[in-house]
Each structure stands twice: as structure tokens, then as C-alpha cells.
């Protein structure tokens, strides 16, 4: 009897130890992915900075990301942008994605450790597929806009003011009920008490759903990054900090509103500066 009691007591301890090892391995892999993507993003940013920007009417500069260099095809330009976009998104979104991936890993706890690991990877792949699709759309719009402002100087002169308006709207979006709903979905997905089937189809759909919610939740902050400088390390660091803070800190809705207040102020300042130049 005493042996049975000892075995019953040891079982939860062994399970707890296995969970701790699994979590340590999970965090370690995520840290390595984050470090690799951050390093690649820094190298890519330095490479773009070395190429220089194109001065435009209105006192701003346009990145060569959106233009075709001599000897390049548009397919090569698009592939280069999408590659940098994916690496950048991994570096920016992974800090806030890790808790959601771990909750998914626990939600399929009945699966073996190896299977749960591969399913979690599949969730992450589905998540970043959504961001990759968004990058394709962003490149198409950005390239078209770049071609337009190169041909229409009057439109180019209006860009600094338009940037301020975009930032202002992005800040105001932080206060909306829509933003609060999307943020709540990101902070709690999947529910802590929810169990999910341990199959590839569910994992893939869960990753896509996470990516869609995240893309909607980050729409305003991503727009700021695009108009301020998509490969600007300072802009990336600021947006990453904002996204991670509103996802992970207590009182996410209040944090989002604090961020919104700062962004609205920045937008108003940019509008005033643009008006002063005009």
C-alpha cells in the first residue's frame, strides 16, 4: 500500500517536471528564432540604409524598397521585399506570439510531446502565412504609390502631411471598441480552459485565425511603421514595444489607450511640422 501511495504522489511531480522541461525547450527555441530574425532584420536594415533613399518634393525621402534598380526585375524586387518583410515580422511579432503558442501547446496536452511540438510549429507557420500575404499586398500598394508620387510632384509634396494624418488615425483607432475586441482575442486565444483536437487541420486553421486577429489588432500600429519607415530600426523597435506591451501587460485595453494617446500626439506634431514646411 505504501508503495502505491508513493507512486501516486510521485506521478504529479514527474508530470510537473516534464512540463517544466518542455516549457524550457519551447522558450529556448523561441529565443533562438527571435535572435536569428532580429539579426537578419538589422543586417537588412543596414543594407537598405547603405543604398540610400530618394529625395522627394516636400522634404522627405522615399526608400529604394519600392523601386526597381538598374538590372532588376519586378519579381526580384518583390521577392527581396517579401523576404525582408517575413524576417522583420518574425522579429516583431514573436515576443507577443510566444504566450499564444504556449497556450495552444497546453490546449493539445493529450498529444505526445513530439506531436504537440510539430502542431505548434504548424500554428506558427499558419500565423506568419497571414502576415506574408499582407506583405504581398503591402508591396503592391507601396510600389504603385511610389510610381505615382515619382510622376506627380504635387502629390509628393502632400506626403508629409498625409503621414501625420495616418499616424493620427492610427492613434485614434487604439480607443475604439473594435480594437478592444481584437486585442482581447489575441490576449486570450485559445482560452485557458479550452481543449483543442490534436490534428494538423485544426492547428493550421488556428494559426490562420490567430494571424487574422493579430493583423486586425495591429492594423493601426503596422500602418505607422509603413508610413514612418518600414525598415527603420527605431520605428520597428517602437512598434514592437507597443504591440508587445498591449498584448502582455496587465490591463491591455488601458495600455492600448495610453499608446493611442502618445500616437495621437505624435500625429498632431507631424501635421504641424508638415504645415510649417508648406
UniProtKB/TrEMBL annotation:
Name of this protein: Metal-binding integral membrane protein
Entry's transmembrane regions: 73-98, 119-148, 154-173, 210-231, 255-275
Stored InterPro entries: PpoB2-like (IPR018688)
Keywords linked to the UniProt accession: Membrane, Transmembrane, Transmembrane helix
Native species: Paraburkholderia fynbosensis
